[in-house]
Design a protein that fits this description.
single chain; alpha+beta; Ribosomal Protein S5, domain 2; eight-stranded mixed sheet; 8 helices
């Protein structure tokens, strides 16, 4: 492991105060990461589409402490209101990263965030939220170390984000990001996500993702608990091997423009993730009746129209409907006419593949 290379050797004296704002996206895994080992390292390689419209904007306001102490001093403001509930997770995050970001204890921070999607919508916000804080901290480090290259900046941002939420390391760049060491992906690492730079056929450019909000509210099972259930799982070893094989397969699929192969692999991965939860101890069924209704409707529509629409799932009930840009109008009509009735309050979000984090001016929040 090369974690030591991410600990700064020397930093110049920082500014007394400042404010930095980043917008970072959510992402949706195509080959799923499920199962981890300490500290936040994946048991298998994953690959994801970076999204565009589902994002978090975070401002980090910082000020040098008047009295030095050995504690983390920060406030969290979410959607304009002080939020105590998020503080323990960020406190844990700071403890994990302080060796890499030694100036953390020198400042008082206000972390102000807002999502482009409802927080209670059932869309995972930890990936976009934690990556946004990581990007802000790296901008601070850049001010203290002007010799930091862009490559080092983004690698370390991804590493920090991973220590906040594993999948957050895939929200720093776009459009396709690989996390986890794999012999066929150059530069891949368990420590951070890297852009997938192999050949990608045009059909996979600007792929569309409509997120059907089948179930809103708190997750039935936290990601941490879910990953923990892979320890001693009777099928874990086979699952990790399957994921590594699927990375090799999806690499060929992207190169050849094999949309049918993409559909088969991505849907199988989604169902495998849920199968692992259904066969763990304790066991969980994360899909809702409407999740299954949507899946069957997609299969039926594909069979009768020849459409290249497909689905994937996170560890929850919501359905990500994936389709090429060339089918945008017809598939969105299908969603409006046949699928929206299975969504909570008829809510869904149209999204598409995006290009990763963006530095914003401080007027955004």
């Amino acid at each position: 492991m090369m974690e030591q290379t991410f600990i700064p050797k020397s930093l110049k004296v920082g500014k007394e105060s400042g404010k930095i704002t980043w917008q970072t996206p959510s992402n949706i895994a195509l080959v799923k990461y499920w199962g981890k080992r300490d500290p936040q390292l994946p048991e298998n390689t994953s690959i994801s589409f970076t999204l565009s419209n589902c994002h978090t904007i975070t401002s980090l306001t910082y000020k040098k402490k008047e009295v030095k102490n050995d504690s983390f001093d920060f406030e969290v403001v979410f959607e304009g209101e002080k939020n105590e509930a998020f503080k323990p997770k960020i406190e844990t995050f700071f403890h994990r990263i302080v060796a890499y970001v030694p100036f953390l204890k020198e400042y008082s921070f206000v972390i102000a965030s807002k999502n482009s999607f409802p927080h209670s919508s059932g869309i995972a916000s930890s990936a976009s939220g934690m990556s946004a804080i990581a990007m802000c901290l790296m901008s601070m480090e850049k001010e203290l170390n002007s010799e930091l290259s862009d490559e080092e900046f983004y690698k370390k941002a991804s590493l920090l984000a991973r220590l906040g939420s594993g999948s957050a390391c895939r929200s720093v760049k776009g459009a396709l990001v690989v996390w986890g060491e794999h012999s066929e992906i150059e530069g891949s690492s368990d420590l951070y996500g890297v852009e997938f730079t192999d050949a990608v056929a045009p059909v996979f450019n600007n792929y569309q993702d409509t997120i059907l909000l089948v179930d809103k509210g708190e997750k039935q099972v936290s990601s941490t608990v879910g990953h923990g259930l892979m320890h001693g799982h009777p099928f874990a070893t086979q699952r990790f091997a399957q994921a590594q094989e699927n990375i090799s397969k999806i690499k060929e699929i992207f190169a050849n423009g094999d949309v049918d192969g993409f559909i088969a692999l991505v849907e199988s991965e989604a169902l495998t993730l849920h199968a692992m939860m259904m066969t763990s101890h304790p066991y969980f069924i994360l899909m809702k009746p409407n999740t299954l209704e949507v899946i069957h409707k997609i299969w039926e529509y594909r069979k009768h129209t020849g459409s290249k629409v497909c689905f994937t799932l996170d560890a929850g009930a919501n359905v990500h409907v994936l389709y090429p840009e060339s089918e945008k109008e017809t598939v969105q009509t299908f969603i409006k006419e046949e699928l929206f009735v299975y969504c909570k309050n008829g809510e869904y979000i149209h999204d598409q593949v995006g290009m990763g984090a963006k530095l914003l001016d401080s007027t955004h929040i």
